[in-house]
Design brief:
This protein has 82 residues and is an alpha+beta fold. It has helices at 8-14, 29-37, 45-48, and strands at residues 2-6, 18-21, 53-56, 59-61, 72-76. It has a single domain, classed as Roll (Ubiquitin-like (UB roll)), CATH 3.10.20.30. The protein has a five-stranded mixed beta sheet.
C-alpha cells in the first residue's frame, strides 16, 4: 500500500485529502500519476497538469522518482510566495 496525500487546490479539485491505495506495478512517480489519471473525471488532472509537484517520503521527487510499497507520496501544485 502507498499512502497518498493531496494538498492545496489539488485537494479541493479531488475532494479528498488523502488515501491509501494498492499501486502494484507502479515503481515511479510518473506511473503512479498515470494510475491515478486512469480513474477518469477529476483525476485526469494527474495527466493534464504538468505543474504538479511530488514528494516521496517528504523529499521532492521528479517523474522518475522511485516509489514502493509503504511509501508516502504527496502531490501538490507549485507554491508561490510573496
Amino acid at each position: 500500500m502507498i499512502k497518498l496525500l493531496y494538498f492545496a487546490s489539488l485537494r479541493e479539485t479531488l475532494g479528498v485529502a488523502g488515501e491509501e491505495i494498492d499501486a502494484s506495478g507502479c515503481t515511479h512517480v510518473q506511473e503512479l500519476r498515470a494510475h491515478l489519471a486512469a480513474r477518469g473525471g477529476v483525476w485526469n488532472v494527474f495527466a493534464t497538469s504538468k505543474s504538479l509537484r511530488a514528494a516521496v517520503n517528504q523529499a521532492m521527487a521528479g517523474a522518475d522518482g522511485a516509489v514502493k510499497d509503504g511509501d508516502e507520496v504527496a502531490f501538490f501544485p507549485p507554491v508561490t510566495g510573496g
